[in-house]
Amino acid sequence: MRLYDYPDCPFAQKVRIVLAEKELEYETVFVDLRQGEQRTAEFLKMNPYGRVPVLIDEDVVVYDSTIINEYLEDEYPHPMLMPEDSAGRARVRTLEDFCDNSFLPSAGFVQAELGKPDEDQDEGRLQRYRKGLTDGLVRLEGFLAGREFLADEFSLADIAFVPAVLNLSRLGVEVDPRLRNVTAWLSRLRQRPSIRSLGL
Fold it and tell me: Which element (helix H / strand E) includes 66?
């Protein structure tokens, strides 16, 4: 098994957590996004969108972190990271969709802005995207009501949020202590060896 990876890519981090949870052995192939290695003809044969991660498992090539993680769940079902019931699985997929299309992009925009020289940073953009993250945390507070994890048991839904929620302080976003469900959830996430291995 080979994972085409870039260490700081949040989508690749999601896949590495699943691989660690399932204790799967794999080879890492570093793709230097700064040098444009994701746009080489060789890489584009594996993923025509030119993005990491890409997973190769024997003769199976899978790209897109959400699809990769569901493939790993289907192919290597222990420990389970998706509920057995259709309603629970739909909940996981809905939460992943919210993360991938709203929460992670807001975090990415903040990180990109902070990567600019101070004089080039747009404070208005920073405030807008930080507010997107704080609004997202309020939504998560509701999703976590009465639950230890987003789908009761630790699942792909929780994993989707890890790269952003464990980086919030670096993005200049503080978790409101009144969000008690979120605060407790973050503590539980930080205790998992698979997540600690990322060094977030």
Answer: helix 65-75
Structure tokens at 46: 């594996």
Using 50 as the pLDDT threshold, list the residues of the chain that sit under it: none
pTM here is 0.91
Tokens 């990322």 -> residue: 198
- HSE of 139, CA atoms in CB hemisphere, 13 A: 13
Task: Give the phi and the psi of residue 155 in degrees, each rounded to 5.
Answer: -150, 180
- 86-196 has which fold? Glutathione S-transferase Yfyf (Class Pi); Chain A, domain 2 (1.20.1050)
Q: In what order do the strands lie in the sheet with 2-5?
A: 27-30, 2-5, 54-57, 60-63
Instruction: Report pLDDT for 188.
Output: 96
Strands 27-30 and 2-5: parallel
Q: Please give the structure tokens belonging to residue 146.
A: 């009465």
Catalytic residues: 9
> Class assignment of domain 2-75?
alpha beta
pLDDT, residue 34, reads 85
Encode 143-157: b = buried (16+ Cβ within 10 Å), e = exposed. bbeeeeebbeebbbb
Indicate the residue type of 200: L
- And the tokens for 109? 């925009």
Give residue limits of the domains in the chain.
2-75, 86-196
pLDDT for res 200 = 61
